Amino acid sequence: MRRPPGTMALVVSMSLALAACGERPEGESAQDFAARVNGGGAGGGSAPAGDPAAANQPDGPRDPSLPRVAADGRKALAAGTAYRRTNPDGTHDSLAIAEDGTFTLDQGGRRQTGEWEWLPDGKRLRLLGVTHQPIVLIADGALYRMQNENVPFDDVTPDRVYRRGADPAP
Question: Fewer beta carbons within 10 Å, N or C terminal of the chain?
């Protein structure tokens, strides 16, 4: 059976594209994200000029009932306070960020402790050693768990919000 012209080139180019995807499991780079979403990261926004990934980021979720992203995450973070969320089965997960650079994450009946670091924009931090949702976006009275640092600030959902203190009634 004879293949149509260009079939082999298509197969090779698709293989190369898939191979390139395997090299970057964390997603696209912050610079690539900024260029794709913000036209290179130039312009307004509330992030420092040195962080193109956070430039022109929205300051809140698409759902107006969710907490807005804090203007200054370093000031808004209530260090040492447990932020909690209620799971569909009625159990609770919690996340506490300590001033000494450590965190305690209680999730799915298991406790994980470790260290955290600020990302350059001062609105997010990274939980070192956490593989599922390691980025924490600071909001007013809440934290959002994000899959990676390339997730837009308005791409948050109720299942990713940890609220300071007791959970509000549903």
Answer: N
Chain centroid to Cα 60, Å, comes to 13
103 residue type, one letter: F
- Whether domain 8-164 has CATH 1.10.260.40: the reply is no
Question: How many other β-carbons are positioned within 10 Å of the β-carbon of residue 11?
Answer: 11
pLDDT tens profile 125-153: 999 999 999 999 999 999 999 999 888 88
Q: Note the pLDDT tens digit of each residue in 55-96.
A: 566 666 777 788 999 989 999 999 989 999 999 999 999 999
What are the phi and psi torsion angles at 160 (to 5°)?
-105, 5
- Per the CB < 8 A criterion, the answer to whether 56 and 41 are in contact is yes
Closest among 50, 106, 98 to 77, alpha carbons compared: 98
- Ordered by start, the domain boundaries in the chain are 8-164
- Token reading at 93: 């997960």
